[in-house]
Amino acid sequence: MEAKSVDIRLEFTPNPNALKYVVDDHVLMERGTASFTDRAAAESSPLANRLMAIPGVAACMVGSNFVSVTKSDDGDWEVLDTKTRDALKAHVNSGEPAVNPLSLEKPASTIREGETELDRRIRDVLDRDIRPAVAMDGGDVVFEKFENGVVYLYMQGACAGCPSSTATLKMGIETRIRAAVPEVQEVVAL
Predict the structure, then answer these.
(1) Is the pTM of the predicted complex or chain greater than 0.85?
(2) What's the chain's average pLDDT?
(3) Model confidence over 7-27: pLDDT tens digits?
(4) Which of 23, 122, 157, 172 is most buried (CB neighbours < 10 A)?
(5) 3-state secondary structure of 36
(6) Is 139 helix (H, G, I), strand (E, B) or coil?
(7) β-pairing, 57-62 with 66-71?
(8) What is the three-class DSSP state of 182?
(9) Class for the domain spanning 117-189
(10) What is the CA radius of gyration of the chain?
């Protein structure tokens, strides 16, 4: 079988330790994102497994047509960039799914057992307004819970550990959620 040509576009993120690799002509995931912060978790994803095997890669997040790669403190982008591109090309040519579909959580917008109407309203704002914007920078936010006026979220991909994440959380995410759901008093990252 002849190897497919794979065009990979590099995008910088607000996080100096994370880069976003966009693969325009190939769908990596049908919807949502999958975040991996260690080799054990990456076992459920052929693509993440390849990326996490690269020395200097601390985490990765797979999106619809992109992968965000976060380097460790001792990682060198000059080395990691080439190896990341090679791993992405090898993955696309392997024909394997980026992530084993059976290992994925329910989509963020899926109604969950015990979820309240308020939870659904918060999740709708996240899915409609916030997650697409954050994904443009190679990140994602995942709703965990709403309790006593506080929304608890996980920051993933390029957002995790980003120096700008507090500003994004407070001035962007919290402001938007509070405008749409007045019952929310604060948004906190876990």
Answers:
(1) no
(2) 88
(3) 999 999 999 999 999 997 777
(4) 157
(5) strand
(6) strand
(7) antiparallel
(8) coil
(9) alpha beta
(10) 17
